[in-house]
Amino acid sequence: MEAEQAASEDEPPSLLWGLDPVFSAFARLYIKDLLLMRESRQVPGIYLYKSHPIFQVDILGTVVFKREREDFYSYGVDDGTGVINCLCWKSEKWKEPEEPFKGGRAASSSSAVGPSGGFNVEEQLRRLQQAQRGASMLEIGDLLRVRGSVKTSRGQREIMSSNFYKVSDPVMALQISWMQELPQLYRRCYQKPFPLSDGEPGTCATTTGGQASFSSLLGRATQTLRDFLREKEVRRFRPYDVEHLLLPLVPQLPPLTGSEQASAAGPSVPSHTRHLLSETLRILQQEGTLFRRVLSQDELYHVTEQDKDLLMAIRDVIQQDSKRQKYAEKGCHILHILSSVRRRYSQSLSRQALEVGLRFLESSSDIISTSDCHYTVV
Amino acid sequence: MLPATAVYHFPWELKPSAIADGTSVRTFGRLTCYRPEDSTAILSSHHASIKYQVSVQTSCVEPFNPLCGALYIVLGEIENTEEGSGVMLRARVMNCVDGVDLALLQKAINEQRSFFQKSEDNKGSTSG
């Protein structure tokens, strides 16, 4: 019972499955893992391997069982870790050509060169069809590669193939490289947890589900704030000016302990909104979109691209120093600009904020970069 | 309905007492002797200066083109025989893989095994 509950909590929300690259790829898993995967509770038909949603798989193995029906082949494939049934549909294109056609072209069908001396398309097409048929008809002992979706029918796991073919591997080169590749794929990709946040994994101490919703919420919050600052051309603001922007996003957060809705004065703002806001502001500061000119009790944030004083200070520094012989040819290095602007404007200016300012000035053609880290006036 | 999984085994691991009767295995060796009248073949391999032999019942995979001296991969069920020290394998699949890099194949099998071992250990330690 507890294991089941833990398992269902492990499932990432289905809305976020598209974020996992494994979901869109044909996952190369061992057959024994395919047989043991459990089906998702949210969307039947999708399976989960260590919190990765799996829909399509890619396997390579020996055919140990064959059954032919009118429309499909059913091959049992063994890769050394498990055996699974693969349903491989027959294609119309592979069916034998009708007799009348064969009789009429008996004379010319044997050669690739037609009676006119040119390239005989019919002959080539016939050979192509033969090759395709050959690649799809396998016997026990042949090596088969199958790509398709996983299904459970009558209690048995099987693969509904979308693409399959016989592999010619006379010296086992492909099988050996497959055996060596899979453990690496597992270690690098499949055994790592579902990639929910691109930032520090330890920021949110809630369950995996909570982490998923918080990091996606954080993404939405930063975007909302960025859009607002750009549209309204905000130069400076304090946190309580922008709190209201995050309120619409808040109801989607999982509720924290009890109800912390009461606040001292003004409109009630839950504490998790404040937490979200402080995280958002921290991320925007790290990016360089915002900076604090003076580090004091008063939390006043400046928007880098809108702060005319900062941009003027950067431009003046570069203009004046570019006249000096030392910097005339190559331009000023970014660290030199940083120390000069810090002296002139704000001690707490970060490199990221300076880079945002420099990019803005460059796009308005006030300065130009002479190399990766050097700038000069136009 | 589907046959059991044939796990890779090295020929020197196929001792009569080590593996249960009826287990599906996959192994390799060089074809040194083939008797079509009995449908038996012998696959030999060397490991640490010792020659190992595996007897194979080939009735299910005949007719096949026997190349004496060529390397074969055989997949089948173990049948422990009373006489001698050999182990008998009833083949379901017999593929000629002459030209295969045996050292590389061995390395790949060992890598896979150590990976499975580590996964089992991790699972054991997290659930414990």
Automatic annotation (TrEMBL), chain A:
Principal localization reads: nucleus
Q: Which residues form the Stn1 C-terminal domain?
A: 217-377
Q: Where in the cell is it found?
A: Chromosome, Telomere; Nucleus
Q: Name one Pfam family in it.
A: STN1_2
Q: Which UniProt keywords apply?
A: Chromosome, DNA-binding, Nucleus, Telomere
Task: Spell out the SUPFAM superfamilies in the cross-references.
Answer: Nucleic acid-binding proteins, Winged helix' DNA-binding domain
Q: Does the keyword Transferase apply?
A: no
One GO-annotated biological process of the protein: telomere maintenance via telomere lengthening
Question: What is its biological role?
Answer: Component of the CST complex. The CST complex binds single-stranded DNA with high affinity in a sequence-independent manner, while isolated subunits bind DNA with low affinity by themselves.
The family database entries (PANTHER family) matched by this protein are listed as:
CST COMPLEX SUBUNIT STN1, REPLICATION PROTEIN A-RELATED
What does the annotation say about its assembly with partners? Component of the CST complex.
What protein does this entry describe?
CST complex subunit STN1
TrEMBL record, chain B:
Q: Which GO terms describe its molecular function?
A: single-stranded DNA binding; telomerase inhibitor activity; telomeric DNA binding
Under Pfam families, the record lists: Ten1_2
Name one cellular component (GO) term: CST complex
Q: Which residues form a coiled coil?
A: none
The cross-references to InterPro entries, in alphabetical order and at most eight, read: NA-bd_OB-fold, Ten1_animal_plant
Where in the cell does this protein reside?
Chromosome, Telomere; Nucleus
Q: What biological process terms from GO does the record include?
A: negative regulation of telomere maintenance via telomerase
Listed A to Z, the keywords are: Chromosome, DNA-binding, Nucleus, Telomere
Q: Which residues form the signal peptide?
A: none
Assigned protein family: Belongs to the TEN1 family.
Q: What is this protein called?
A: CST complex subunit TEN1
Which species is this record about? Clupea harengus (Atlantic herring)
Supply the gene name. ten1
